[in-house]
What does this fold into?
Amino acid sequence: MDVASLHEAYAGLTPQARLIAFRAAVPGRIIFTTSFGIEDQMITHLIAEAQLDITLATLDTGRLFPETYALWAKTEARYGLKITPYAPQASGVEEYIRQYGINGFYASPEARKSCCNVRKIAPLARALGGAAGWITGLRADQSANRAGLAMVSEDARGLIKLNPLFDLTRADIADFCDAHDVPVNPLHDRGFLSIGCTPCTRALQPGEPERAGRWWWEDETKKECGLHIGADGRLTRGAEAGV
Ligand code: SF4
It folds into this structure.
């Protein structure tokens, strides 16, 4: 599939029209992975409203905020749908804790990435197994790392990936969620703009960039968990993907 032509074709569409067109263009199973952030909540709303045949899934790392689990239940009730959980293998978590400690991810980048591998990357691989398309809520203006993000790209696993909100701002998305009464994580109002695992997420100080609260003890330029890797082995960006 020519991802550059999809990018061009979808550029002038609304996010929901992009989702509908993507569903029509990609044969086979399409999965949307939600972490229940505000972007993902908007996408869930759009998928539910259009009744698209797209599988909703989440990576339940076991270390999420109580507010996130509550929002998970609330979202399923609001839209009458099920979100499939993908949890880490118990043996992998046990081995990690034996080797690094229960909060070993603070000790070094290697220890942190090892935890993300066990709790996120391996479950994601299972979630995406057999899928042809993957939808995420990434936005280009979330961080310097994501500045060149493409709307459509080819993932390293060979999936066609759509980021239907890639060119929206956070304010656009907040306005949409307000207008459509979309349930959102109450942590957003307490300074947590990007929400991940509890021990690896803190509230932002005024003026800090949106993802500064994630793995805040690490180098800003390396703050990704490894989920979003393109066919070239790098973060899925527009320039590198040729779109
Ligand atoms: Fe582990 Fe933190 Fe990564 Fe969650 S975000 S998987 S707790 S290192």
About this structure: The CA atoms of residues 23 and 37 lie 22 Å apart. The two ends are 13 Å apart (CA to CA). Confidence is low (pLDDT under 50) at residues 233-243. Residues 109-128 form the longest helix (20 residues).
